[in-house]
Structures are given as structure tokens and as C-alpha cells.
Amino acid sequence: MKKVQFIVLLSILCCIIIGCSKDEPLEEVIIDDQPLLSPQYIMNIAHRGASGHSPEHTISAYEKGEAMQADYIEIDLQLTKDQQLIAMHDDTVTRTTDGKGEVQQLTLDEIIDLDAGSWFNEAYPASAEVVYEDETVPTLADVLGNFGVDANYYIETKTPEKYPNMVKELVATLEEYDLIDDELPEGQVIIQSFSEQSLQEVTTLAPSLPLIQLLNKDALKQLDDERIAAISSYAIGVGVNYEALTDAQIEAFKANGLLIHAYTVNDEKEMSELIQRGVTGIFTNYPDRLTNLLEELKADQ
Ligand code: G3P
Ligand code: CA
Question: pTM of the full predicted structure?
């Protein structure tokens, strides 16, 4: 065989081999007909609700997430001065309402008077809706009461070191809304935190709740095999900042039986790449984009 022919043949063989191996992971995952906590299922998590379309952590944002077929409503928790759990990312009301101040210095009555939607209309006029002007800050109970036992909840204990009663109040509220029950589908409620201590407290009070250890960029940089093994002793998975996530870490998480949920991914190309690399769930402000991508992947299978 001439040298040129050999090179052409070798190139064709390489393309076939690379092409096949690139497609392999997508045949392993999917997409439908799997339990929520299966490593073969890709979770669509509406980050602070469909917060790319509606003001974050409002009933509108959660409704939109549900309508866009997200698997989970993601809820960050803060605790008011009078020990009421509210859905809010920041520990102050300043960014996402027309009020000011620390949540732990304000009562629920003071907080529910605030406008939680107009800031969004001003910041994102292309997505603005008049109804957002009437949005208020929901309590956790409001959300659970509104969406009921048929929705799935992915709840974060935010800055729990500031709130000694947070986990106790969380477990009590979940019990009140019949969301701690062995009869419910596994994974209907997931608890996530950057704080291992907070997750351990959840285990003590409600051992059946599955846990996700959140890892930010710094935590990922410091991660070693010992820490990954330790996480797998109390959590079903990790929630990771996708910008710092390495392929070696993905392999190590999988080897330890951990689910891998990447945050916060809004670009379809990046979603697709992360699924190809082996993540098993995505937090996104645009659950419609992930729903469409998963439909496309399913159609290609
Ligand atoms: O909970 C996953 C992700 O939401 C963590 O980041 O700051 O948006 O709560 P943050
Ligand atoms: Ca969160």
C-alpha cells in the first residue's frame, strides 16, 4: 500500500473510532423512564425557578419552571427574625426586592410587604411582565402549599451558620406538608448545602432525605480522593461549579457512586458538553433550553 493511501485509510479509521466513542456516553444516559436518582437520568433543575425568565424565587418563576418541564424547583432558604423560612438566595433583601436590610433582622410581616418582582422588570425589560410587580417573597410553606406533593423540591440550606434553627424549621415544614415519607418517590425532596455540618444535621433529624454536597470553585480545587470518599459516606451526590470541574473529578465522583449536578449552566452547548462528559444533572435558569436539548438527544438515540 502506498504511503498516501495508508494515511488516508488511517485517517478514516481514526474518524470512525473517534466518532463512535464520542457518541457512546449519550447511549449510556437518559433521558426518560429512569428513576430521578438513577445515574442514567439527567436531572433538569430550575435554578431559583426559571429565573432567566421571571424574578428569581417567586411563585411565577417556579410555575414557569414546572411549565418548562423541569424535574425540580430549586429553593434557597433564609430565616427571618421571627424564625420563618423564606425562599431567597441572598442574606439581605436588597438585591431582589424594593426593601433593604438583612433577612435575619426583618420579620416575615416586614418581608412579605416587599415587592419582589419590579427589580426584574427594570433589569430585564425584554422579559418584563406586569404581573411581576405583584410578586412577593414566598415562604417555604407557601411554595410547598402551592406546588404540593406532586412536585419535586431541591432545597438549599443557605448560610446555615447564621441560622441555628434553620434545619429544624426545614424538617418541621417538610413534615407538615407530608414530604418526609418513605412512601414518596425516592428523591422527591433533595437537600443541598455548601455546609457539611448542615447536611449532617439533616441526616440526624430526617435520615431518609437524600443529600447533595455543594462544592464551589475553591472546594473543587482543594478536592482529593479522601474528601470524595468522605462525601460519598453521607451524600448521594455533589453539586459542582461547572467552570472548575475536571474530567478526572467526574471519573472520581462516578467511581464513588456519586451523582454529579453542575451549576449554573445556561448555554445549550455547555449543557451538551457537560452531559457528554458525564454529569447527571444541571441547574439552569433556562429549564426550557435543557428540556429541548434532552428532547433532541432522545430523538437522536
Ligand atoms: O445550589 C446550587 C447553586 O444554586 C449554588 O449556587 O449561589 O446559586 O445558590 P447559588
Ligand atoms: Ca442554590
Answer: 0.90
